[in-house]
Design a protein that fits this description.
By secondary structure, the protein is an alpha+beta fold. It is about 30% helix and about 20% strand. Strand 3 and strand 4 (about 70-75) form a beta hairpin. The radius of gyration is 18 Å and the shape is flat.
């Protein structure tokens, strides 16, 4: 197989792929928003920087069925043109996981530009998993005077 540059892959898939979700804006000025639900896209935005398809170095953080988080990184084989995804379970304390994410993404020079996005996504997944496990209680909605 021939290796294809990331920019060429992005030019092919940016306007039409199965993960693309277009949402109309509220006014003519805001236009359409383009979201992407692909794996390896931290912000769910349809852009070259955040794309998990077009990038050979993609980072993703997702939740599993057991309410734990998983850090996913793409690994390209040196001898073959195959691309594999490594999944690292990150279900320790919050501070340890933050240091693991920083070491994997930024300190290792993998994708330092996505460090803040990865930490933001992990904090939201961590918060949702705590509610799902019952560690933290959901705040009841106030109904007003009656």
């Amino acid at each position: 197989m021939v290796a294809i540059p990331n920019q060429l892959v992005w030019e092919v898939v940016k306007n039409n792929n199965c993960f693309l979700k277009k949402v109309n804006g509220r006014s003519k000025r805001s236009g359409t928003m383009r979201f992407s639900v692909e794996k390896g896209n931290l912000r769910s935005l349809s852009s070259f920087k955040h794309s998990g398809i077009a990038s050979s170095q993609a980072v993703g953080i997702s939740s599993t069925d057991k309410n734990t988080a998983v850090l996913e990184t793409k690994v390209a084989s040196k001898s073959d043109s195959r691309i594999a995804v490594t999944e690292t379970p990150i279900n320790k304390s919050f501070e340890k996981v933050v240091s693991t994410v920083e070491k994997t993404i930024a300190d290792n020079y993998y994708r330092p530009d996505l460090k803040n996005d990865a930490l933001a996504k992990f904090s939201k997944i961590y918060q949702a998993n705590r509610y799902a496990k019952g560690v933290k209680k959901v705040v009841p909605v106030k109904k007003g005077r009656n």
